[in-house]
Each structure stands twice: as C-alpha cells, then as structure tokens.
Automatic annotation (TrEMBL):
<protein>
    <recommendedName>
        <fullName>DUF1868 domain-containing protein</fullName>
    </recommendedName>
</protein>
<feature type="region of interest" description="Disordered">
    <location>
        <begin position="1"/>
        <end position="22"/>
    </location>
</feature>
<feature type="domain" description="DUF1868">
    <location>
        <begin position="14"/>
        <end position="90"/>
    </location>
</feature>
<dbReference type="InterPro" id="IPR015069">
    <property type="entry name" value="2H-PEstase_DUF1868"/>
</dbReference>
<dbReference type="Pfam" id="PF08975">
    <property type="entry name" value="2H-phosphodiest"/>
</dbReference>
<dbReference type="InterPro" id="IPR009097">
    <property type="entry name" value="Cyclic_Pdiesterase"/>
</dbReference>
C-alpha cells in the first residue's frame, strides 16, 4: 500500500486518503489513559465534536479520529517497522550494537520486539524510585499547532518522566534527536490533507472549547511497553511500572 505524497508526512504512513488505517507495526512505552480518569469524558466530548464538524469528512474521515480504547500518552518511542534509520533504532551501548549485528537494522520486526521487551522487562526490576509512577502532568488549555495530528499537550509536574526516559534510553540503546526536548501529548486524530489557517482556527476552537471544563491535571498510575499494528489499539507487552502492582 503506497503512501500518498499529498498527505501530511506524519499521517501518510498510517492512513489512506479516505481515513482507512494502514499497517504500521511498532512498539513504544506509553501510559494508557485510565478508564476512570477525569480526562476520559473530555476526550470523548472532543471526539464527538470533531466527528460532527463539517470539516471532518474532508480532513478527519474514516478511522482518523482515534477510538477511546487507544487513548494514551507516549513516553518513549521504540522500534517502528517502517522507520529503520540508524538515528531511530537502537545504537547506544554494547547491548544495542550486539542486537544490530545479530538482527540487522532492517531485520525481522518481531526479533526487535523481543529485544525491546527483554530490555524493558529487565529495567522493570531495577527502575529507580525517581522514575516510578504515578506521573502527574498539567493539561495545557491550548492545543499544539494542527499539522498531521490534533492532540493535547501535557506538561510533567516533576522530573519522573524525564528520569524514566533516560533509563529507557540506556536500557534499549535508543536515543532520538528530540530526546531532551520531547513534548508529551495525547493524540486525538490524524489529518489526511493540509489544514488551511481558517480550518485550523475552526478545529482548534472545537477542541479548546471542551478544554475549558477539562481537569487541570492528569495522573497516570501505570506505564508499559505496548505493541501496535495500527493507531487504533495498543496492546501491553511488558508492564514497566504500576502503582497498584507495586512494581519494584
């Protein structure tokens, strides 16, 4: 299934122009939005408002507005099957170089999943107290610029997530170019075409209207390595930290 070059770069690998999900295998460390989180009703209201907006058919068709069960905050991007450049694959440390030598940068994706899962499982046994959940973040009242995605911006209250990212980088050997200035977020939808300034203003107003009554803080009690075949669902592979399970 070829990518459509007319679509935004961040969505063309994940969706077709009609909003059908494309295969996009990968795994990342994420925090699912808890089922009882006060943020859930806000997310559902935003989804409904976007889906009913006149621009939805041309900008957010099909499966581009992500379902409730996919709601999560990405903490650390690991391996994605279609992104195999040296700068986004494991490279830092002897363990990462050994994996590259054994599997190959373009090697079998499932072998890379096994590698990451084993590294994260080992980290779960030694994760420092400073990097443990729960993670408390402030929800920004304004959303980031709308490009390939529509999402919410979150600001950590302390350094726990930054400490976690450092430990994950050391464990997996992955360190992206934006490692030190990563922006925490919850993605709500993907766009299938360029959004014009007046259209962005309309969609921004829809989302930010619902944020007026949203909770000012969001708490994530659990963090896990999750795999995905597309953007519709994220399956837990390894629990890294869970307040209820008292990991470590």
């Amino acid at each position: 299934m070829q990518d459509d070059p007319s679509m935004p770069a961040g969505s063309r690998k994940k969706f077709t122009p009609d909003g059908t999900s494309k295969p996009y295998h990968g795994h990342s460390v994420i925090c699912h939005v808890p089922p009882d989180s006060p943020l859930r009703p806000t997310l559902n209201r935003i989804r409904a408002a976007l889906a009913s907006h006149p621009l939805a058919q041309s900008i957010l068709p099909g499966e581009c507005i992500l379902p409730d069960e996919s709601s999560h905050m990405t903490v650390f991007i690991c391996v994605r099957n279609r992104e195999r450049g040296e700068n986004v694959m494991p490279w830092l440390g002897a363990h990462a170089q050994a994996a590259v030598d054994q599997i190959g940068l373009d090697g079998d994706y499932n072998e890379w999943l096994d590698y990451t899962a084993s590294r994260v499982a080992a980290l779960a046994e030694t994760l420092s107290p400073a990097a443990q959940p729960p993670y408390v973040l402030d929800l920004a009242p304004e959303i980031p610029p709308i490009g390939a995605t529509i999402g919410l911006r979150l600001h950590p209250r302390d350094d726990a997530l930054w400490d976690l990212r450092e430990e994950l980088s050391a464990a997996t050997g992955i360190r992206h170019d934006n490692h030190d200035d990563y922006k925490f977020h919850v993605t709500l939808a993907y766009t299938v075409r360029q959004v014009m300034p007046d259209e962005e203003a309309e969609l921004r107003a829809v989302v930010e209207k619902e944020l007026v009554d949203a909770p000012s803080t969001v708490v994530f009690p659990r963090v896990a390595l999750c795999s995905f075949e597309d953007m519709q669902n994220f399956d837990v592979e390894v629990v890294l930290g869970d307040v209820d399970e008292h990991v470590n």
